[in-house]
Design a protein that fits this description.
about 450 residues, alpha/beta, Rossmann fold, Immunoglobulin-like, 6-stranded mixed β-sheet
């Protein structure tokens, strides 16, 4: 009985009709015929309401429901949720659906309306776009069911609570996969050259010609053929590529509800996928005061899972990033020449100059690619036509010019860089990686 009272609601339509009947009762004091009509109408309304209740409660489970949630959410992307409703009543029903969404979305108006014919199914889709990694708790689905009379409502609480984890943007991996197999990123005029290398990847034994490295002489083959023979090796194809993410306060800045750290994390996941598909070795690490989340660059099948799990737990702090520690650890642990993709942010030349000695030291043994960000909000100040904002516009232009100076300063010391807007980060980093690879710089 308690469940019956908790699930039964009287609709506004019923109260409107009761109000009309009450008004007729008042008129009945002056015109007696209306008093009799009011009693008949009240009895009819009571009877119809009772029938409406019986129709809604004659089945223990008149509405069947299933909710299809993804195994995990993709941060910064549109995730589609599917709800399936089945009407087992013998009549058409009108549903008002309220979803209990995770608090992170801050949505209190997730209401949907449906009309379902008897013994029919209906599928409802809606999209969610998470803006932070972490745990999302989906509650139950409240379904308020009405007959075509719409005098009373029965509430169903359907589905089960479910906890989903929100990972870095894995939905965009397929979007960028095609870049690994196209030649669009190759610069015009670039010629592919087959290089002879000295790795352990053996290719063939050939006759010695002037200019061959005598250290590769194959004495057994020479003795058999009675002429000098040398081993020929091919260049090592799998090069280490490390994504290095700055977790300092510079990466706390937000654009379009995502922090720079989240943009860097999403780009790291995408570029790691492309690196592995191009037969290179993908690795990563993060740093602020110390180095953390170290994953050695490898080409194994489980590498993407390791990187994804490590990126899931990354968070910024408000400390100043220590590039000296980064240099010291990389010098000790990464002994092979590698491509180091460093996601950080420099706003001024002074900020760059404090870290430039360590970046130059890294560039002696590795190919260093610095990724930093345009402040897209400054662009709106630069383009303003309001005379009162002219001073703000000048200051904004100064900051934008500082970014260009930083690019030129890095280029002067042979350090590659990409200055990009946060929303274009992933595509620009992938294009730069493919360009560097096609030029044979690492």
């Amino acid at each position: 009985m308690k469940n019956f009272y908790n699930s039964l609601f009287l609709n506004n339509r019923l109260f409107y009709l009761l109000g009309i009947i009450a008004a007729l009762f008042v008129v009945g004091f002056f015109v007696p015929i209306f008093f009799e009509i009011s009693k008949v109408l009240l009895f009819i309304l009571f009877t119809i309401s009772l029938i409406d209740i019986i129709l809604l409660y004659k089945l223990k489970k008149g509405i069947e429901f299933s909710r299809n949630l993804p195994e995990r959410l993709s941060n910064g992307d549109v995730n589609t949720i599917r709800l399936i409703f089945t009407n087992t009543y013998g009549f058409k029903v009108i549903l008002n659906i309220i979803e209990e969404l995770p608090y992170q979305f801050q949505k209190r108006d997730a209401n949907f309306n449906l009309k379902i014919d008897s013994d029919k199914d209906k599928v409802l889709f809606y999209d969610l776009k998470p803006n932070q990694r972490g745990v999302y708790n989906f509650g139950k689905t409240n379904v308020y069911t009405n007959t075509p009379l719409q005098l009373v409502t029965r509430k169903y609480v359907l589905g089960e609570e479910k906890i989903l984890k929100c990972y870095p943007s894995f939905l965009k991996l397929k979007e960028f996969d095609f870049k690994a197999f196209t030649n669009n990123s190759l610069s015009y005029g670039t010629k592919k050259v087959r290089r002879i290398g000295h790795s352990l990847e053996f290719e063939q034994i050939k006759e010695y010609v002037s200019g061959d490295d005598i250290r590769t002489l194959n004495w057994k083959a020479t003795a058999k053929s009675n002429q000098l023979m040398v081993n020929q090796y091919v260049e090592e194809k799998s090069q280490p590529v490390y994504a290095i993410i700055d977790k300092g306060r510079a990466m706390q800045m937000q654009f379009n509800q995502l922090s720079l750290l989240d943009y860097a994390i999403n780009a790291t996941l995408a570029i790691s996928n492309i690196v592995l598909r191009k037969q290179d070795k993908a690795g990563m690490l993060s740093f602020s005061k110390k180095l953390e989340d170290w994953i050695v660059a490898e080409k194994r099948n489980s590498q993407m899972n390791l990187i994804s799990e490590s990126l899931y737990n990354l968070k910024t702090d408000f400390s100043e990033s220590d590039f000296s520690t980064l240099y010291a650890v990389i010098k000790r642990k990464i002994t092979h020449r590698s491509l180091l993709i460093i996601y950080t942010n420099f706003e001024t030349m002074d900020g760059l100059n404090r870290q430039l000695p360590y970046l130059r030291a890294l560039a002696k043994n590795h190919l260093v690619l610095i990724i930093f960000f345009k402040n897209t909000e400054l662009q709106s100040l630069i383009n303003t036509d309001n005379i009162q904002d002219v001073y703000d516009s000048i200051i904004a232009e100064k900051f934008m010019y500082e970014k260009i100076r930083i690019v030129n300063e890095l280029k002067k010391y042979g350090i590659q860089s990409v200055l990009t807007s946060p929303e274009n980060l992933t595509g620009d980093v992938i294009n730069k990686y493919l360009e560097l690879k096609s030029r044979g710089l690492f």
